[in-house]
Design a protein that fits this description.
Blueprint (H helix, E strand, L loop, with lengths): L1 E2 L3 E3 L4 E6 L13 E3 L1 E3 L3 E2 L4 E8 L7 E5 L15 E8 L5 E5 L10 E7 L11 E4 L1 E8 L4 E8 L8 E4 L16
Parallel strand pairs: 2-9
Antiparallel strand pairs: 1-3, 3-7, 4-8, 5-7, 6-7, 8-9, 10-11, 11-14, 12-15, 13-14
């Protein structure tokens, strides 16, 4: 049992190839055990090669396991198969971001500390991922790999609300999953 991709992130699938040492007429998708996701219909490429698409479970880091236990199918002489298995790394947990402020009402001369809390570690979240209106941010600092702070200064002579946001797909987690908006 082989795969087109051994490490899957959110939105990805893998083509699983089952290569038999001898032709079989009774190998079927019901012979395959799957955990950590699901497998689609079995397609016969030849009498010894079959493929199916594996889709990992959503919002999961549980490994995908695809196996065929012994005695599930036979060859032309009615000999039963041996066991085969394949494990896939799965991380379909999409990172989220929470944005909080030390002060929700600012007047002239005041600033607020904005805290960005990520649900997972990220090495590519930076100040350029942040959109700001009604003021500006500076002093962007990484407190940890999941907590960042910045100072928001409202626009001078303005009554416009300050809006601080991070659009979806601005940073990623270690598996390469892109963030949701915050």
């Amino acid at each position: 049992i082989t795969t087109s991709d051994s490490a899957l992130k959110a939105g990805e699938t893998a083509t699983i190839t089952f290569t038999l040492s001898e032709a079989s007429t009774d190998f079927a998708v019901t012979d395959i055990d799957v955990s950590g996701g699901s497998i689609g219909d079995l397609t016969a490429v030849s009498s010894t090669v079959y493929t199916a698409v594996f889709t990992p479970s959503e919002d999961s880091t549980a490994s995908g396991l695809i196996s065929v236990t012994g005695d599930k199918f036979t060859d032309a002489a009615d000999n039963a198969n041996t066991t085969g298995s394949l494990t896939l790394a799965v991380d379909t947990v999409v990172p989220e971001i929470a944005i909080t402020s030390s002060d929700s009402e600012l007047k002239a001369g005041e600033t607020a500390t904005i805290t960005f809390t990520l649900s997972e570690d990220s090495t590519d979240f930076d100040v350029n991922d942040i959109s700001v209106s009604g003021g500006s941010i500076d002093s962007f600092t990484a407190v940890s790999s999941t907590v960042y702070t910045a100072v928001f200064t409202p626009s001078v002579d303005s009554t416009a609300s300050g809006l601080i946001s991070v659009d979806a797909s601005r940073f990623t987690d270690a598996a390469g999953n892109a963030n949701t908006a915050g």
